[in-house]
User: Fold these one by one.
Assistant:
Number 1:
Amino acid sequence: MAVGSGPPLLDFRQVSVARGVKRVLDRVTLRVGPGEHVAILGPNGCGKSTFIKTLTRECYPLRTDDPWSLEVLGRKKWHVFELRSHMGIVSNDLMAACTRDYSAREIVLSGFFSSVGVWPNHEVTPEMQSKTDEVLERLGIAHLADRPVEELSTGEGRRVLLGRALVHDPGALVLDEPTQSLDLRALRDIRSAMRTLAQAGTTIVLVTHTLADIIPEIGRVILLRDGRVFQDGPKEEILTEETLGALFGTEVHLIRRDGFYDAI
């Protein structure tokens, strides 16, 4: 259920997407309201990454005989750079693109331009510089500002990418497998940052196959399987051993503690 006013963050109705000859999303219908914190959970290959690429306009829906529509923030058409100023993205593809000899400060600053690094034609204002320093400080990585991202640890690089997503104060943050390859301390840092942002009012859309990434502030879980919505509803109703076992095709023993879930 939406908890804010304004248009929904996203509204997919019977959306299908192909990658090559394979239909990866198959007639997906889902809606995320403003201020709603949602997790999209599913096994590898279920269509999660394609869903994000569709949301960010890197993939486009198939034109089919069945009626379909796709709206983001109440609009069917966006200039991609304008859209990215409303929605921060943290993904593994973007992390790979940003792992270069640009400094952490340059990568965070580049979020204003939806680029990787700052280019000669970018007009960097003192306000942008100040905001970049503020974000670096807030995420506890100010001491890394002048270091090349390619020299940082995986956890440090992920926080730099999070800073890039947050530097223009987007209303929503889309996180694609944000804790992949992180050690225990980095895991806790990223999850703590997610909780702080959710509590401050930033809409969180978490896309993951890791149950433990679902922070307590997330109240709704959407399960994807074979490119389709398998289940969708309140977290407490969706995250059951029976449902998760059917989703992942294996026996699941669920653990709940302090608002977090995990499975063994």
Note: The first helix runs from residue 48 to 55.
Number 2:
Amino acid sequence: MTIIVANGEKPSAPQCIELLHSAEAIVCCDGAIRHLEELGVKPTVIVGDGDSLTAEQRNRYASIIDADPSTDYNDLTKAFRYCEAHGLDNITILGGTGLREDHTLANLGLLLRYAGRFRVRMVTNYGIFSAIGGTTTFASRAGEQVSIFSFTPTMRLTFHGLRYPVAQRTFAELWEGASNESLGDSFTIELHDKGQVLVYQAFKGQFS
């Protein structure tokens, strides 16, 4: 598994720390190096234009900086491009939300964009975002808070294993699939048409 660390809220939840320590590779956006330094974790590579690094950091990490001065892509996109170029396709994003709401929206958009190319999810300090384009079953627990956001208003969805099931329903607004609840150790989101969906699973104790 490859971890991409973005420059949002510092990963601090136990689930995030465990992921960092079990990663096979850590791709760090340059602005997020401060998070890893505070956590005592060294990245495999630092990507970005380097404008967020101090002179001391540029010297310290010179051997692992993959500089990309392009202004056509943000740092998370550059991290995805690095992963694609190096055959890294099982990706978890940390630090992708928080601090800047506009960056959060942009990063969730990138999660949807790259879901077709990678096995990818975004883990925050509060839960997990997964982007899907086909019927998917999720490991869960009874009482887990779940939200489903359809980005294709004409797509029909069916929910199995959730407290508020629906059958072949379309969702015209993002809020319509929010705040559901798992009934057991798994649930399934069935897609009857082509489209994009974000599924959010809150960690225990969050939003309950």
Note: The domain at 2-125 is CATH 3.40.50.10240 (Rossmann fold).
Number 3:
Amino acid sequence: MKHSITLNVNGDTYNLAVDPWRTLNEVLREDLNLTGTKFGCGSGDCGACTVMLDGRAVSSCLTLAVEADGKEILTVEGLAPSGEKLHPIQEAFIEKGAIQCGFCTPGMEIAALDLLRRNPGPKEDQIREALAGNLCRCTGYAKIVEAVQDAADKMKSNQS
């Protein structure tokens, strides 16, 4: 039996009927065509599927879509909704060469956003700890950490 849910994704509202066992990741990718959120391990270990749910980073592969009913969801597509101006985190990832194959990038960027909202001036060890749940297949961690540090500076500058 399908459940009627309302998802608020990247500022848009979607009314859907979903099977109770479908994950948020499946609904985002298959029903809403928001494929920036990746499906990696399916067990919450790799972080490729990280999205913000009511302002908190979660693994969308472990979150049932019905659990997200009525909540605010931010995917990587929502970081730069107009598609014209990138979010400072996205700019920093490009400028610092933190994108290799790109598979981990959406989850890393959302995890970085979660960190920077809680701690606008993290030290390197705090960045590494915050991103520990996100795996990079290409082992580009040094450049990713540099990008998060740069994004923190950019976001502070934008607030002044």
Note: The chain has two domains: 3-77, 88-159.
Number 4:
Amino acid sequence: MSKFSLDVLSRCVHPYLESHDPDIILGAVFGEDVALTRIDDSILVSHLDPIVGAVKNIGWLAVHVACNDIATSGAPPRWVLLLVLVPKEEDELLLDEIMSDISRAAREIGVSIIGGHTGYSANLSRPLVAVTALGTISNRIPVRTKGARVGDHILVTKGIALEGTAILAYDFAQVAWQLGISEGEIMEARQLMKGVSIIPEALALAENGATAMHDVTRGGLLETLLEIAKLSEVGMQVNAGRIPIPSIVSRFARAFQFDPLMMISSGTLVATIPPEHIESASQSLAEKGIHFADIGQVIDGQGVQIAQEGQIRHYHEIHCETDELARIWKLYPQNDQ
């Protein structure tokens, strides 16, 4: 599954989302992870995310991905609503597995499942799970994608292309073997899925001055940086040598020929931190045992500049329809599922 292009969204979706409700603080805005709604003295933070680019762990992953977006605002997630669709009426074992995984993820995060819908559709070739996550925030201004300021440091946690590599290891194992990846490497890549939550680091950085946060999902790190830059009306200057790419990710990238900068990576958080908060933010992450890298700085200008081996590549256009995992699904539609 891929997104429509920004041009299509601007023509066919966004014109129909206008609202005059005075309690809507932040409605549907491209690039923002959440909606913000005023309820009495609190702010309701909400987000909806579908998962169809995975099969194994799809329920577990869907809950974590949706709750990650709530955390990027600085709010802890509290509740989830579910949509679970499987291809056939006979897929009871698949449904049971998905619901079991959803329950496991909810326990890990500490959220409550408060409702939803389950069903089947012959039009599906693989299951679809969509999760609406909700949380509340009080006595604090929520962190948004648009908050980056000139001079801020750009922090990236854990590494990039984590989720996409793990999905390839689970759902494309047969293809991986054919491409020369060993059983040990496949097992190592699958371990990346365990780090998919960014809730601990997002809440910690919200407490330590983060001006903008965005989890790295569809489109990868590059798309995430472009969205922060566009919404914040700034530029991003990045040193490619500082971008954390786990060796197992590089191995899969060579075999499957994908660009780690553009691979989906739930488990990776991008945050912009003012210079006066960088020490406390770094210390907070270190105390939690969360690996991170300071990859660059927010600058005057537009788009993203990535410096590598004496050359600078400039990126300006947002291509939310571009996704490496979706491309691989098209290349290998008959994988080992």
Note: The mean pLDDT is 92.
